[in-house]
Amino acid sequence: MTTDLGPFARTRRWTRAHVLATDAVLALGAFVFMVLGSFADPHGPHGPTFGTRAPEPFSLVLMLLGAAALVLRRRSPRAVLAVTCGLSMLELTTGEPRAPVAMCAVIALYTVAARTDRPTTWRIGVLTMAGLTGVAMLAGPLPWYAQENLGIFAWTGMAAAAGDAVRSRRAFIDAMRERAERAERTREEEARRRVAEERLRIARDLHDVVAHHIALVNVQAGVAAHVMDKRPDQAKEALAHVRDASRSALNELRATVGLLRQSGDPEAPTEPAPGLALLEELLDTFRHAGLPVRVLLELGTDTGPLPSAVDLAAYRVIQEALTNVRKHAGPGAKAEVSVVRVGASLEVTVLDDGGDSADSAPGAADPGGGHGLLGMRERTGALGGSCFTGPRYGGGYRVHAILPVV
User: Please, which residues bridge with residue 398 across strands?
Assistant: First the structure.
């Protein structure tokens, strides 16, 4: 938070950098005004007059000492206040005509009030007002009810109040600046957190796409290499599946990576994200790879469409679970997919029987794996759902995800 001072900005910076020089200029100005004020007579025959009286040499010395003390007002504010109050009391009791030496004490009291807390301000302020006014009324040459004595009380009171107001304003500005800086830091941290979440989401999508399609390509390429010499027709069919899987992988990678483009890029993808509407196409890719898959889909007809995030998450969970079955289950494995909408939740279940290796489980054959299961849990957890995975009794593996719909 910055304060625009316009043409006074340079002067403000200079005064902050040269405190002693600034206070010296103020002290000189106070001395000049005190000397000029000592030539004014408020009790002239026809009202206030100027030049009809002159200050005594002793009063000039007191004014000079008081002004000199003001040079150090910001370095030792309380000591300067004590010195100026002492000089003022000396002038109030001996000066005739009286010179306005108390102006130094007024400036010093303002400085103390502007640089300390409120309780201290009022304690010192009341003590200064009572001390100067009491000396002026009881020990001065003028009657106790003279307006000059009441003027001392008023000026010291206004100095304390003005200093306290300035201190309060500075504290308010500092608080506003600190709040703005804290809000700026919080905004930056929130932006970094959202960027990290978006990167994690894109990483999950990339993992799902690559793991699924590359696994299918690997299987079909192995089939093609195995039957190339004896059954070329079946090898051609397997290679056609490799081509389709690789094309699908490229399309989904292009769509996912396109999210990283800037908003003004003309080539940003506009295709909708995959969802349960494409579930049959997904299952066909596994069936072509030799994994029999049965499906049960019950979404209801009067409950409305699924939220896009839930639809995508359900699709990705099924894709990752079946990819793990194809990669890690034994030969002859079979899978079952169930997608059922129950009230305010969507339950996705993927089961396999383990094939000929009933003790195998997704991830067991790949010691460096495990990111797929973690990605499913993170994806469902980001939507407020849950995902449970584990081996089935008697062999095989089970993936069960619950996604909130509302």
Answer: 351, 390
Indicate whether 2 pLDDT > 50: no
Mean pLDDT of 348-359: 76
Quick: pLDDT tens for 238-275. Answer: 777 777 777 666 666 666 666 555 444 445 445 556 78
344-to-7, 299, 303 alpha-carbon distances in Å: 64, 11, 10
Q: What integer pLDDT is reported at residue 399 of this predicted model? A: 92
By C-alpha distance, which of 83, 84, 167, 73 is closest to 120? 167
Strand spans (E) along 293-396: 293-298, 335-342, 345-352, 386-391
Q: What is the DSSP string of 96-114?
A: SSPP-THHHHHHHHHHHHH
pLDDT tens-place string over residues 85-111? 998 888 888 867 777 888 899 999 999
Cα dihedral 363/369/373/377 (nearest 10):
150
Residue tagged 């009933």 (tokens): 358
H-helix or E-strand spanning residue 124: helix 118-139
Structure tokens at 100: 């306005």
| DSSP code per residue over 134-153 | HHHHHHSSS-TT-HHHHHHH
**What distance in Å separates the CA atoms of residue 286 and residue 324, rounded to the nearest whole number?**
11
- 381, 387 in Cβ contact below 8 A? yes
State the pLDDT at residue 349. Answer: 92
CA of residue 303 relative to chain centroid, distance: 39
CA dist 303 → 102, 131, 306, 318, 345 (Å): 85, 84, 9, 22, 11
Helix (H) or strand (E) holding 298: strand 293-298
- If one compares 358 and 395, the residue with the highest pLDDT of the two is 395
Joined together, the tokens standing for residue 235 give: 């090898």
